[in-house]
Give the backbone structure.
Amino acid sequence: MNLNFQQLKTTQLTCVEKIHTHEAQVTDAPSILKVLEQVMLQVEYHCFADLRFKHIDPLYKELCLIIAEVLILDKDSFIKINSSIIPVSLVQEIYLQIRNDHLRIVFSNFQNVSHRIYNKKFYLRTALYNAVFEIESHFVNDMNMIV
């Protein structure tokens, strides 16, 4: 069997990739690894280190990857968040507000889920989006439980 490398080159995927039927498209965006580095700085990723085990739970990196993936999507596209189709530009604005505490809330809530999650990535994408809106009420609820 002969492989035609020229033919393989022309059939490779370009930067435009359809994510899902109603999902956004990736265009000539910056490298996801570069954006991931920026996200890790934004959320102070190093703070998630568990000193007892000298590592960071992989879920934190997964959360950062989901954020980075959304940040490189075409701003004029749409994305599914909590069963709603929302402009990517709006989700990107919200994701740019995510900080360390937001990820901790999503991590904690995910650990406490008692039902089966069928699509983990979509669940976490929605949880990250909602965390920005829910952070203040989360801390108020925590304080009320202490008192």
